[in-house]
């Protein structure tokens, strides 16, 4: 009775979770005003729409280089406007590359109440920030061999970041991931929804969109509302290029929020749509102008840049393609193995069910909330069964072959005895005692072989697959069989020797 109550309780709980999940479906909206991406990331005059950058940062049409691979560089890019939504997801595609085995210092994502200083002390931004910093720390200051490291650090505007310990005493959470010098751009997806902060990381070993893995998830994270997004980077004695390829912001809305928002902003939506349209037209106009003004440059860039590759690039590309195809093959193999295991399990359970059925136990459907009826273990597995049947078949075939061979040998020895008898009658010069001895021994062998053949005809029926036990009939041993065949061959050899001698003597007489 209590188990039924428990079941009801569990069902009710699951149902309520399902209802909760259904009612709180996340609505997503791309926020172009808090995003940048190529092509035409920066405009002709070097500005990035809705963003401003400074320090040593340089924006091009393809990326934003926050800090170049020179000593002691600092740079940052900040959104011009604070966000007007509570929950969000930011996808950052970046490359940290350098010729050194070790690089420095790293790159940081910011969500703070105020814009950082371009000459700040923390990865190209200000210390004592108010909000969240996700830091991609390349250099191992505390020499604990735990860098490059990705970490979230919360600050209320009072704490000073401890570079000496790589922030290890201040971080909220983090994960050890190498993000330097990867074949494809690395990515971080930072999600802040319902006070839960989740960071996923894409290690840049493939260009597959789906290859994100969880870095960490942290609950009850309270961030100030209406903050600013920013990115910054810095180099030190060692230096990497810190390039950001895109920054894509998506606002996240629960269903309830969405309903309220729709009622509120029909006008605003129209205004935003118009604004976006104008922006697109402006961008297109600028693209066309640029092409008109620099026809050669455009063609050079678009047509010829991708045609050539250095030896190193080619070698790398070839190795990479090889590795990728290997990975594909491995994935396929993995899938196949999974399928095979699945099928194996299915047939085994089917077999077990059939077995228990044949043992007189009715097949019982599994009742919800009850343990499935224990199926008695089979004395043999499916593997053993298959092997047994195959072996059995092999044995039958071999025995049939042996039987044929023995019958043939027996037939030949018959013929030999007959021939030997005829020859002996015409050859008075040969010792008759030798001849009769040989005839006796051949007759003995023939009898033995006939006996063996008779026994073997019984064996195949006994070894039928329906009977799994070994045949009770005592079969001739393999060694015995060999001895018989060997003696047969010896006798044949002696006989042919004798016949040759006899013919040679007959030639002398004529
Ligand atoms: Ca560090
Ligand atoms: Ca460290």
Automatic annotation (TrEMBL):
Q: Which UniProt keywords apply?
A: Disulfide bond, Lectin, Membrane, Signal, Transmembrane, Transmembrane helix
Per the record, its GO cellular-component terms are: COPII-coated ER to Golgi transport vesicle; endoplasmic reticulum membrane; endoplasmic reticulum-Golgi intermediate compartment membrane; Golgi membrane
MF annotations from Gene Ontology: D-mannose binding
Source organism per UniProt:
Diatraea saccharalis
* First-listed, main subcellular location of the protein, grouped into a coarse class: endoplasmic reticulum
Q: Do you know which InterPro entries this protein is assigned to?
A: ConA-like_dom_sf, Intracellular_Lectin-GPT, Lectin_leg
Cellular compartment(s): Endoplasmic reticulum-Golgi intermediate compartment membrane
Tell me where the signal peptide lies. 1-23
Please list the residue ranges that the record marks as compositionally biased, kind Basic and acidic residues.
Answer: 285-299
Q: Which SUPFAM superfamilies match?
A: Concanavalin A-like lectins/glucanases
Please list where the region (Disordered) is annotated: 280-299
Topology term for the membrane:
Single-pass type I membrane protein
Q: Which residues form the L-type lectin-like domain?
A: 28-252
Pfam families, alphabetized: Lectin_leg-like (PF03388)
Q: What is this protein called?
A: L-type lectin-like domain-containing protein
The UniProt transmembrane annotation reads: 476-498
Q: Which GO terms describe its biological process?
A: endoplasmic reticulum to Golgi vesicle-mediated transport
Domain of life according to the entry: Eukaryota
């Amino acid at each position: 009775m209590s188990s039924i109550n428990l079941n009801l309780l569990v069902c009710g709980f699951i149902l309520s979770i399902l209802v909760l999940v259904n009612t709180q479906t996340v609505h997503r909206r791309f926020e172009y005003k808090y995003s940048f991406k190529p092509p035409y990331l920066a405009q002709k005059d070097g500005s990035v729409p809705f963003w401003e950058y400074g320090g040593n940062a340089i924006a091009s049409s393809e990326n934003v280089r926050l800090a170049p691979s020179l000593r002691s560089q600092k740079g940052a890019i900040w959104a011009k406007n604070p966000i007007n939504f509570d929950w969000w997801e930011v996808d950052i595609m970046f490359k940290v590359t350098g010729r050194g085995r070790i690089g420095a210092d790293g790159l940081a994502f910011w969500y703070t109440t105020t814009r950082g200083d371009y000459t700040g002390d923390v990865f190209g931004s200000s210390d004592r920030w108010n909000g969240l910093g996700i830091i991609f720390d390349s250099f191992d200051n505390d020499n604990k061999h735990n860098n490059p490291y990705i970490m979230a650090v919360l600050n209320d505007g009072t704490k000073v970041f401890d570079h000496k310990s790589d922030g290890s005493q201040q971080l909220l959470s983090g994960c050890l991931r190498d993000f330097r010098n990867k074949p494809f751009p690395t990515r971080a997806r930072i999600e802040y929804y319902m006070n839960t902060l989740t960071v996923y990381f894409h290690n840049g070993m493939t260009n597959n969109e789906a290859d994100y893995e969880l870095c960490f998830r942290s609950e009850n994270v309270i961030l100030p509302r209406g903050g600013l997004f920013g990115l910054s980077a810095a180099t030190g004695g060692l230096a990497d290029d810190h390039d950001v390829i895109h920054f894509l912001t998506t606002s996240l809305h629960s269903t309830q929020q969405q309903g309220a928002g729709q009622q509120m902003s029909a006008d605003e939506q129209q205004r935003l749509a118009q604004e976006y349209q104008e922006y697109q037209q402006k961008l297109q106009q600028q693209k066309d102008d640029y092409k008109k003004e620099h026809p050669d440059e455009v063609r050079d860039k678009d047509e010829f840049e991708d045609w050539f590759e250095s030896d190193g690039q080619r070698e790398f590309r070839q190795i990479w393609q090889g590795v990728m195809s290997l990975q594909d093959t491995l994935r396929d193999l993995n899938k196949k193995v999974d399928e095979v295991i699945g099928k194996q399990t299915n047939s085994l359970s089917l077999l077990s069910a059939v077995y228990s059925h044949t043992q007189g136990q009715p097949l019982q459907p599994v009742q919800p909330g009850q343990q499935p009826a224990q199926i008695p273990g089979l004395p043999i597995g499916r593997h053993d069964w298959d092997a047994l049947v195959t072996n059995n078949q092999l044995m039958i075939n071999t025995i049939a072959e042996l039987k044929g061979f023995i019958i043939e040998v027996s037939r030949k020895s018959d013929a030999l005895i007959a021939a030997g008898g005829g020859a002996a009658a015409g050859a008075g010069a040969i010792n008759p005692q030798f001849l009769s001895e040989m005839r006796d021994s051949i007759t003995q062998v023939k009898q033995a072989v006939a006996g063996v053949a008779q026994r073997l005809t019984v064996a195949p029926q006994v070894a039928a697959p329906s009977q799994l036990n070994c045949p009770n009939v005592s079969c001739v041993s393999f060694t015995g069989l060999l001895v018989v065949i060997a003696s047969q061959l010896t006798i044949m050899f002696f006989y042919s020797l004798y016949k040759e001698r006899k013919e040679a003597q007959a030639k002398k007489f004529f």
